[in-house]
Fold this protein.
Amino acid sequence: MTPKTETDLAQMITDASGPLRITGGGTRPIGRVIGTPLDLSALSGVTLYEPGALTLVAQAGTPVAEIETLLAAENQRLAFEPMDHRALLGTTGTPTIGGIVAANVSGPRRISVGAARDFMLGVRFVDGSGTVIKNGGRVMKNVTGYDLVKLMSGSYGTLGVLTEVSLKVLPAVETSLTLTLKNLDDSTAIKAMSAALCSPFEVTGVAHTPSTATTHFRLEGFAVSVAYRADELSKKLAPFGRTTEAQTDWAAIRDVHAFAKQEGDVWRISVKPSDAAALVAKLGAVSVQYDWGGGLIWALCPEGHDLRAAMGHTAGHATLIRGKGCGPTFHPEPAPIAAITAGLRAKFDPRNILNPGIMS
Amino acid sequence: MPVPDAAVIARKDRLVARLREVLPMDAVISDISETRAYECDGLTAYRCPPLCAVLPANTAEVAAILKICHELNVPVVPRGSGTSLAGGALPTADSVIIGVAKMNGVIETNYDDRYIRVQTGRTNLSVTGAVETNGFFYAPDPSSQLACAIAGNIAMNSGGAHCLKYGVTTNNLLGVTMVMMDGTIIEIGGAHLDAGGLDLLGVICGSEGQLGVVTEATLRILHKPEGARPVLMGYDNSEVAGQVVTDIIKAGVLPVAIEFMDRPCIEATEKFAQAGYPMCEALLIVEVEGSDAEIDAQLALIMEIARKHNPVELREAKSADEAARIWLGRKSAFGAMGQINDYMCLDGTIPVSALPFVLKRIGEMSKEFGLDVGNVFHAGDGNMHPLILFDANKEGDLELCEAMGAEILKLCVEVGGCLTGEHGVGIEKRDLMHVQFATADLEAQMAVKDVFDPKWLLNPAKVFPLDSSSPRRAA
Ligand SMILES: Cc1cc2nc3c(=O)[nH]c(=O)nc-3n(C[C@H](O)[C@H](O)[C@H](O)COP(=O)(O)OP(=O)(O)OC[C@H]3O[C@@H](n4cnc5c(N)ncnc54)[C@H](O)[C@@H]3O)c2cc1C
């Protein structure tokens, strides 16, 4: 089914007699779900863009590339740097803005500016009963009523099918520069990344690649400012070694290209950075990559590996992004939280037809 | 407010006795001479002492209190420092106030991972106070930060002057411990980033005390910038000032703050604080951060834009003292307006592009209603703060002021904005919610409350128009 308007969509959901599998561009098949495909790609187009107000409104099926082109023409960008999952997952479709919101997809800059959810200003969606609902708006500060915009971000379509999103955009930067440190072990690399994040120099990407023993620090902004901060950051990182300027491919870090051609399950783990190295040591992964100063771990594991058992009681969560895995795709929740989650789903999708089970 | 439940009031003695079983003697306040201290928040026009007030010392005590209230069907109003301007912490005669003021400790600070965990009664400013000797700060900075508590900040999703760069509370909140109405203690989020499942933290933040009582919070802390410096610009036309704001944003500079004041506000603050502001139609304060050289570079660009629009005054702070003088007037604006008369502070948000039109309409409404209005607000994000002056002792003036306030807020919604940018709905904008939301939109929000608080006992008469929530409250 390919609705052309929000009204179409509402009718289709009202009339649905069984589970629906909601897709935007189909580039992020995370979570297992069966059902009649409901393809949102025809609900497409930017409906409002005010560069002076840093706001953009688009229909959910709008290709991300279209939005990025429009923004680039005004020297602006999606600051949360959404990951493109295609290489890692071997998919070929066209990523849509709705998919980004539904999966709360961010990139390395999440550590300094926030996640996709932090840039969402408003949503329109159709719930599981076919009712059209709006929340938030198109202004940057808004506390009018409950923030269902956040609730929808990262809900993988299970509470409603997004039809329109409005978001905050930011100016693009004049220049970007990456410093690297070499040959640090994981735990020292995380200390170095923390040192950079605990400085006033505004690093906008801090990642560590154990396979090449390289730690990356990205600075962005006006040229004079970046040059100044690069000097100061190098001094601050001196205890960890001499930094060198490098041509780091941040898109490759963002999209986890390193694991794209390798066999195995891919897990995405969020923990507090100072827990990361010890966790990785006991994880049983074939290979890992750290982002967000160590707070985000990408782990490549043998097929069927029980990663959560290895994780034990470390605070945080792990999501299976690719492969067979072991246990649920999303991190199991403690009983009272699971009860709230189930309660919300029952309210927004009483027939349990929207991507049923995708988040388990 | 809805009529209080006489049956609940009649059972007061039993309730107080039960609460005393689980709390120390001095933590239960039931004498009318003392409950009066909790009769209102920052929206002082509305007052009502609660049935009783309790001051728990920790999460376990909060859970014990809520269990009792849940069992006895007594409404509960959570309270931080009582600075809400929307009546969020206003009690009803049949309710128990749970005040978290005693719970003001720091539980953990972790600089490597850049977070602090506090009890939510801690004031906003003292969170920064706990980490500033190490060079850190907590970014959201409401003007009330000396008094307001993290509890209220989370409930209202409060903002501040520097949120253009750092975001509001929800962007700086990592986790909470919350007690549900039935006494269940839940942990949401923590020191790690983002939710593993549904983003419940995102909906709890800004839920105005209606989903649970938040007792502890993990907050993101940041290293302080090397320095900051403001410039002041005056224009003889607010349209031009609006254009300057747009041009600065379009130029790719992201100041930490862009503040706006209009003539009535400038006049009032000059009398009150003598900050040396130019007498003009529109004054902007733009602040940038970084090292000296970075600030110089950013300000050069900003000053160039400012000059193109023929300012009547353009003044860059050359010293800490001059910087303080530039901020002095802005920071005293509310106090200065308060000297003239009683005032009501609105906080609707509008798209920045609608600024000139909205200011013009507010000027016209001021004449129509015969009430003076001063405008002082966060221009970078369109969050307006019209201050309507009225005389509380004059018959009908408050009602006139409220009617005018409602018109201004409707205007904000009409031009594509919203009723409240940071103060919250409370009781103040509750009955205007229909202007911004369709029935289905409100139903969806109330459905969330149904899940967290099925009996609708937590701060029940707030946020939603009474006619919309009445079937649920009566159930
Ligand atoms: C002079 C002045 C200036 C202000 N400036 C700003 C500003 O710049 N930006 C801004 O955003 N606001 C501002 N405010 C409004 C106010 O300070 C904020 O809304 C603040 O966050 C309220 O905090 P509080 O602790 O006083 O909360 P309270 O007034 O006690 O309560 C506010 C709401 O929080 C709920 N609540 C309290 N504690 C809990 C808890 N433990 N669990 C769940 N819910 C709870 C209450 O039920 C109520 O709905 C200003 C107010 C004043 C008086």
